[in-house]
């Protein structure tokens, strides 16, 4: 009977060991699944953040290039106005300059 009892105790220990091994394996599988899920969530969040930053960058580039286009147009308009102003001034003093040049060219000094 003592041998049966020992055999029974050994069987219980083996069964407990197998059960413990199954629990450990299940825990490892669950941990691995959680890690995989966490990695996928992190990659998804990174992709969303990257897309958001890229969209913001593109918006800023569009704004700055739009501003530079507006600046170019403004500068062209200002330049055209200044050129017209200079032409008007030149036209208004042109007769005086011609008279002065003719006077200096035709006057002989001794």
Automatic annotation (TrEMBL):
Keywords: Coiled coil, Hydrogen ion transport, Ion transport, Transport. GO terms for molecular function: ATP hydrolysis activity; proton-transporting ATPase activity, rotational mechanism. The keyword Ribosomal protein does not apply. GO terms for cellular component: vacuolar proton-transporting V-type ATPase, V1 domain. InterPro entries: V-ATPase_G (IPR005124). Signal peptide: none annotated. The keyword Coiled coil applies. It holds the Pfam family V-ATPase_G. PANTHER family: V-TYPE PROTON ATPASE SUBUNIT G, VACUOLAR ATP SYNTHASE SUBUNIT G. Belongs to the V-ATPase G subunit family. V-ATPase is a heteromultimeric enzyme made up of two complexes: the ATP-hydrolytic V1 complex and the proton translocation V0 complex. Catalytic subunit of the peripheral V1 complex of vacuolar ATPase (V-ATPase). V-ATPase is responsible for acidifying a variety of intracellular compartments in eukaryotic cells. Subunit of the V1 complex of vacuolar(H+)-ATPase (V-ATPase), a multisubunit enzyme composed of a peripheral complex (V1) that hydrolyzes ATP and a membrane integral complex (V0) that translocates protons. V-ATPase is responsible for acidifying and maintaining the pH of intracellular compartments and in some cell types, is targeted to the plasma membrane, where it is responsible for acidifying the extracellular environment. This is V-type proton ATPase subunit G. It comes from Leersia perrieri. The lineage of its organism: Eukaryota, Viridiplantae, Streptophyta, Embryophyta, Tracheophyta.
